[in-house]
Design brief:
By secondary structure, the protein is α+β, with helices and mostly antiparallel strands. The chain has an 11-stranded mixed beta sheet with strand order 3-6-7-9-16-10-15-14-13-12-11, sandwiched between helices.
Length: 391
């Protein structure tokens, strides 16, 4: 374990320690999660635990805990990991990080990189800290990464810090960018903020399904209603919001495979096996949480036939995060994609949700529901002015 004391003449000092994920007290994680304004379901301990259980062989954890000197209370958790930008088994097992859009600067695959922990499958990332401590935590993070002997495997320095999935509304984005720029000015670093992707988000105006529909484009509204009528003529439409039981999770996996096959999350290779393990482990952990957790499975039927299944996070207040879905392509007469999404929206609107986050990717179907892009950003820090360079 490496300990770095970061002295901050203008605002005090913090101690940043590299700690294995397993060694971080769960109580501290949950306390800081509750204090983090920009936290999402991807910041939950359950998500990180499930990711390391499924994908631990693909990266090395490099989590930081930040505290004041001579004070045991953890003030921030910075979830980091390190690996090469592309590992040898990434492509054969389909575990490579989603490719950047062309506006992002490419990084050589052999570059030794520090990334946010679990960032392969997390659509949002952040630092766990109160707003008051966030700036201190960012400076401590940059200071620790400036120590060449604290990087990666033993004495091997990192080439890039490649932090992705930072939302524009997350104050951690500006705090980290400022801290890297200030620390890097004396280290020969280059620091760039780049838009990585978009997350289309539906903001519901109105209190009912009909009021929401009335806000959509006329053509989209007509098509949704037409397909719902056609599906209802085939069989009675129903939706079940199920806890992520083993059975419900298996149904999601089955319909996802039916729809996407080898292009989906569960191809017939090691990557598919890891994805299956991750989804089931996350479901298991969320089921064990107080109140049943925030993960659920939406199961939509046309008559007795299951035609759509979605895995989603629900914050219990305003927002549903649609993580992934599957559908029966042979049930085309029931338009399972539109029908499933429509019943889910209707159910959640009645439950009080007013934001539906489709998460990463600008697939056209998302905009038919009135989604508007919200950007996510990447902070790229390079040593020696270019990826793979040495100081």
């Amino acid at each position: 374990m490496h300990t770095s004391v970061v002295t901050l003449p203008s605002i005090g000092s913090l101690v940043a320690r590299h700690v294995a994920f397993d060694a971080i007290p769960r109580q501290a994680w949950d306390r800081l999660l509750a204090a983090t304004a920009a936290a999402t379901p991807f910041s939950r301990w359950t998500f990180h635990r499930a990711w390391w259980d499924a994908y631990g062989s693909t990266a090395h954890d490099q989590y930081l805990v930040v505290a004041a000197p001579e004070d045991a209370e953890i003030r921030a958790i910075v979830p980091l990991m390190h690996r090469h930008e592309v590992e040898p088994d990434d492509m054969p097992t389909a575990t490579v990080v989603r490719e950047h859009s062309p506006i992002c600067q490419p990084v050589p695959g052999e570059a030794s990189a520090v990334m946010f922990g679990a960032s392969y499958h997390a659509d949002y990332s952040t630092i766990l800290a109160s707003e008051q401590d966030l700036g201190l935590a960012a400076v401590a993070t940059a200071g620790t990464l400036a120590d060449a002997h604290a990087q990666n495997d033993g004495d091997q320095p990192w080439d890039v810090v490649d932090l992705r999935r930072l939302r524009a509304v997350d104050p951690a984005l500006a705090a980290l960018e400022a801290a890297f720029a200030a620390t890097g000015s004396g280290e020969g670093w280059s620091v760039a903020r780049e838009q990585e992707d978009v997350c289309p988000v539906v903001t519901v105006r109105g209190d009912t399904w009909d009021e929401y529909l009335a806000t959509l484009d006329k053509k989209a509204r007509h098509e949704i209603r037409r397909k719902l009528r056609r599906a209802a003529a085939v069989g009675e439409l129903s939706i079940e919001i199920s806890p992520p039981t083993v059975e419900a999770t298996d149904e999601f996996i089955r319909l996802h495979e039916m729809r996407f096959g080898e292009r989906g999350l569960f191809p017939a290779n090691e990557g598919g096996a890891r994805s299956r393990l991750f989804v089931h482990r996350l479901a298991e952990l969320e089921r064990a949480e107080a109140g049943g957790g925030v993960l659920h499975v939406a199961l939509v039927r046309c008559g007795q036939r299951l035609v759509f299944a979605a895995l989603a996070f629900d914050d219990g207040r305003t927002t549903s995060y649609l993580y992934n879905a599957g559908m029966d392509p042979s049930a085309s007469e029931a338009s399972p994609g539109v029908t499933g999404a429509a019943l889910y929206f209707q159910n959640r609107i009645e439950a009080g949700r007013r934001r539906f986050d489709f998460l990463r990717g600008n697939e056209p179907y998302k905009y038919e529901w009135g989604a508007v892009d919200e950007p996510i950003f990447r902070l790229l820090v390079q040593r020696g002015g270019q990826a793979g360079g040495q100081p």
